[in-house]
Amino acid sequence: MNITDPVADMLTRIRNASAAKHDTVDVPASRLKRAIAQILLDEGYIKSFQFIPEEKKQGNIRITLKYGQNKSQVISGLKRVSRPGLRMYSSCADMPKVIKGLGTAIVSTPKGVMTDRRARKENVGGEVLAFIW
User: Fold this and answer.
1) What pTM, to 2 d.p., does this model score?
2) Which residues are 26's β-sheet partners?
């Protein structure tokens, strides 16, 4: 299966699994997706993730979703910002704040994939991949 935008596919799978109250979701693996999953883990949006290798394939990332009391969703929203048809770049000074700082922007910079707060701290800009709140 050919996917035009693999990051959007990952975010959609997480959004759908969270809405359906699933415990885990499997996503085809890549280094960028592992970096995004690590940010989601560090920011407290997911419980854990694990790389599952497969022979002659790229492998999968199994993401364990996190819920609050009464199975309420921890992830209220996921939005893909930069996409293949319209890339969105931001300098350090113009780095977007998601819901006035309550959410997180995931940014791909020359120093790696990081959150908007860390990009401001390290004084780097880059491509704004996604918003999560």
Assistant:
1) 0.89
2) 62
The predicted pLDDT at position 41 comes to: 94
Q: Which sign does the torsion angle of CA 5, 58, 32, 99 carry? A: positive
- Asked if 28 and 6 touch (Cβ cutoff 8 Å), the reply is yes
Helix or strand (DSSP H, E) at 26: strand 24-28
- 59, 30 in Cβ contact below 8 A? no
Measure the CA–CA gap between 54 and 101, rounded to whole angstroms: 39
Give residue 2's pLDDT.
66
pLDDT in tens, 86-122: 999 999 888 888 888 789 999 999 999 999 999 999 9
Q: Give the number of other CB atoms < 10 A from CB of residue 90.
A: 19
The residues facing 52 across adjacent strands are 60
Q: How many CA atoms lie within 13 A of 129 on its CB side?
A: 24
DSSP 60-117: EEEEEE-B-GGG-BS---EEE-SBTTB--EE-STT---GGGGTSEEEEEETTEEEEHH
